[in-house]
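no rush on this but wanted to send it before i forget. theres a chain ive been looking at and ive put its sequence and its fold in token form underneath. please have a look and point out which stretches look like helix strand or loop to you. thanks a lot i owe you, the record is right below:
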Amino acid sequence: MLRDTFVEFDDYSNIIMTEKQLFKNIQNTFTIEFWAKPEAIQEIDKESRKGISELSNQRFAVTPVFGAYEDGDRSRAGVGVSVGTNGVSVYEHTTDYLAAALVFFAPLNGWTHVAVVYINKTPLLYINGKIVKKGLSNHNRNVVPSATFGGVKPYGFYKGGLQEVRIWSNAKTLNEIQNNMDKELNRNEPDLFGYWKLNEGEGNIAYDSTINKNHGIIEKPKWNVSKSVSSFNMNILFTFFIPSGGVETLNRQRLYALNKKGIKCDFMYKQEGTGLQNKIDAPIFVTNNDYEIQNIILKGNYEAIVVGSDLLLLQKIRNLGYKGFLIYEVQGLGFNKEYADNFLKNEAQLVLDKYCDGLLYPKTPHLIQAFEKYFPSKKKFCFHNCFNTEEFKYEIHPKRDTPIIGWVGRLEENKNWKDFLSIAAKLIEQNPYIEIWMFEDNTLSMQEERLNFEQKIKELNLDTHLTLYANQPHSQMAKYFSIIGDSGGFLCSTSKVEGFGYAVLEAMTCKCPVLSSDSDGVRSLLTHNVTGKLYDSGDIDQAVQEGKELLSNNILREEIRQNAIEHIKKSFSPDKYAENFSNMIHSLKNNK
């Protein structure tokens, strides 16, 4: 996964020392891989299984850390990798032992992918996804991966570019190396113990993106930042609790919109979530640690930080010394309109008045009313979210013989899965061939709610009709929505309240008709019998009648499908969102 921004090593100036220099619990079988752009030759040594080589001018991209470090265990050797324009060498290091287990002599030009795979103490070397050399087996010592980078006196220092360093606790196969070398990782892959993208662009912290958080300190950092990255005219940080649901979708969409406008977007979440599987080419931080948050802010040079819904984080960022614009953003708020009103009045009002510079929310009637009521003098910004219909759109797939009714959400009160099952059951009474597809994030449901869900399925005899899709990658959803729409079915949204309905919008974009509860936030998307269908929340019989018409009235159905796509393209364009966002920042500057 080559990036425009990477760290450059220039002999003695900028080694990276991590907190945990050896992964001592990963022994004998593991993988070290990275992208390197060497700019100097390395000294070619002989392969050996004993003694200490007379090393000099090695180019240690991965430093062979002393295996007996800290506890004196001389039976353990740390593995390092030297990379020069003339080849790659793998070294092992412990007491009275620093020798080359593998030496590969060949010219390396430009960016090169290097993978060292140990299988039961024997190293294999892969260059650009091809196996090129098998090294010597170590019968006397355990070998473990090192996790510091750049070299060490007096043996030598790496010179050149380095990025995407990954350490795995298993031996990667040829197919795995080839399939992943050009891809950004989700960061929660099994057996991934260290992942340093080295794309921060500034500062002296090399962040480990795994849950191990084995961050490194860069001595005298030197960053290569391409013109395409440095041409951004402002940096913005977006934060939220967890990368899942509508906000994660919004972040992907506005990244596309704002980058085109010259606005660089970074994202920070307080905890891991399934949305991280949706790959985007932007810095993503996952932390709730004050020190890490402060470092992100200090190196980010952010014109503004947009805090999604989190009052405590809003206060924390200001108290950590951030001097730029703080914008509080709400997309959805609670499980009913009364909750939203009470929250803003009793919990948020004092905090927002004191700590934030502006308020941002979509064109949702109950949010507009509440913010106007409680923050009459605060700078407020209200505009539609955006969507890239060129990237996520209708796809042609084999047509299903029976209609499918879809649902997207979490098993919780506001998403109102109980009403959906009741609506589906009544429609199935009239057409026993209907299928039900439910897409959910099963990491966010409570155990009691799931038990109630399973009981309701049995009670309504829906087992044979239902297919559950858990944690589907966003890239697959266009296919599913297209199939549902072409089957003669529809998406049913049953939320009690929505700030904005991204699942509804995505279905409309893929020619999948939508039947939705009148949950306020969807009104900017759905006009009844024009771009979709609405029913009064909780009125099951009305929903069933509207659903029957969607299933049977082909003329109305096709009008809705066409109108929906045109409405999304016109009202939710990325260019319009970028313009509104830029105007918001300029307005805050002028008001300062």
The longest strand covers residues 159-168. DSSP finds 14 helices and 31 strands in the chain. The chain has a mean pLDDT of 91.
